[in-house]
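Lab notebook, bench 4. We co-purified these components, and the gel suggests they stay together. Before we commit to crystallization screens, I want a quick structural picture of the whole thing.
Request: model the full complex, all chains together.
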Amino acid sequence: MTKAPIIQVRDLSHAFTEAGQMKEVLHSLNLDIFPGEIVIMMGPSGSGKTTFLKLLGGLRKLQHGEIVVDGVSLGEASSRRLVYVRRKIGFIFQTHHLLASLNVLQNVQLPLSFGSRETRKHAKETALAFLKEVGLEAHIAKQPAHLSGGQKQRVAIARALIHQPPIVLADEPTASLDKKTGREVVTLIQRLSKQYGSTIVLVTHDNRILDVADRIVQMEDGHILSDSLTSSEL
Amino acid sequence: MRRSLPGSNRLPMLNKLIPLGIPLAWLNLMAEKKRFFVALAGIMFAVTMMLFQIGLNSALFTQVVSPHLKINADVVLVSTQYEYFGISRTLKRTRLVQARAHPDVQAISGMHLINLPIKNPATGRDRDIFILGFDPANPLFNDPDIQSQQGELKIPGSALFDVRSRDAFGPFPRLLETSDRVRTEVNGVRVDVVGVFAMGTTFAADGNLIVSEDTFLKLFPMASRDELSVGFVQLREGADAEQVAEDLRARLKDDVQVMTYGAFIDNEKQYWQERTPIGFVITASMIVSLVVGAVIVYQILYTDVTDHLQEYATLKSIGFRDVFFINLVLQESFILSFLGFIPGALLTAWLYKLTRELAFMPTYLTWDKILIVFGLTVFMCVCAGALATRKLRHANPSDIF
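Here is the predicted assembly.
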């Protein structure tokens, strides 16, 4: 890799207070993630990978160390600046949390209201195009309650990627899906990220989807045990 | 490869407020129709309560001056001990005659007032009625019904009965449909009710009877022609009532109080506002209605926020700011206040009509009442909405996932 990293993590430590005692869950982590990479974070429960993801996304305040996302130091960023950093990130969660009162098209269209120069007509066209990309063009008028788990997750992916964020953070996106649907969802994330040039950091337990990764980072007890390129990159 | 942005047809502010064309607040509210209609019912209840209380308050204090509003006068003379239209020390007729000497005074009329028992012609039971005695040769009243019948009062022992008096006084209006007079007794003296007029009850009077001064003196022999309860002064066209009142204050002895007609009405309203707990009761009821409405709206919006918390937190995590959610909840509260207000106002209009017909109270839905209560309703809903957003504003997306 000769490009500059889009995410830089330096000496990152984090602790929680548990029963009145500080418990460190991340220990002096260092990691560079480069533009366009698909990085899968593996590790058992409690290894600190979800906390790491939240810190990358600016959802949690840094305690020690440094994270620079697309040139912005999260530790020094104001809360207003953090909001703009989040707008460069597409989040995909284990549970989709789509707005039940909106139909599929409206759920996907909503994040485009950030763009001060975005028109409603154009936002709708973009949302329709994304829903076609994820294979849900026939379901645009449905409410989330009338979709299957896989379909909901695909709507959530379309919502996360519609503003074509340079970075996508995905937390166990296949956890609540069956094997086939999980595979479809991961393939979709991979395809769209390649198409739009997004960098993906994906946290998972699911060994079956490791083949989509450019890099696999193994975590345990808050430490990075290994950080290796996959065979496809070698 | 970033998307290009369109170059025309931009309405950025509107897009931010209504990014989907239909307000998200409306979609959220309609997604839970049962909850939505419960909220509307709660707001409708609060609006009806507030509007009805305001209407009642306004009607009661219009009602207390219903006799005043039937009288032609520009300046009023009363005793210095005058309290309200009904109970007062008398003033000397001489003072009224002296007032006549002012060049701007066109006419003067005296009025005697007293509560005396009248016999119900159907049951024979006595009940105090408010009696207004005046000289029927003077055009003191502006009411066409009284004017057209006041000539008949010149016959001693004749009286006009207020149809808006309480039923307990007897079925005078019904009996007059089949007879030209209804005989009864006032203070033990025979009286013939020869006609009716419409005035209305006040805090001081459950019913009204108008008689001539001569009849009044027969009914209440302790009264004197030289002593009046109130003296009314009518001015020439274009005369300044304030100036005449000022002049009369200077000219007349200080055993008389001179006030303009407007001050006379204000004095009556103020007396009853200060002497009765009605103003306090109405204000307290309105506050209770406001609080009940606010609690209902708060509950509905809080539940809505709680139910959508994870969805909102997801939006927060992808870059939506607090202001988006505050705006959303405030929009919901405004929609609720507007849609709850309409049926509340319609229901109150119907209640006002019932009150007018059954209790003869002047309850009318006027723009000032609509604006006050709508303002209070929006205030109530927005406060409830602002409180409901607290949970969301303090929610950290990382704690939710």
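The longest helix of chain A spans residues 179-196. Worth comparing against the SEC data before the next meeting. The CA atoms of residues 36 and 194 of chain A lie 7 Å apart.
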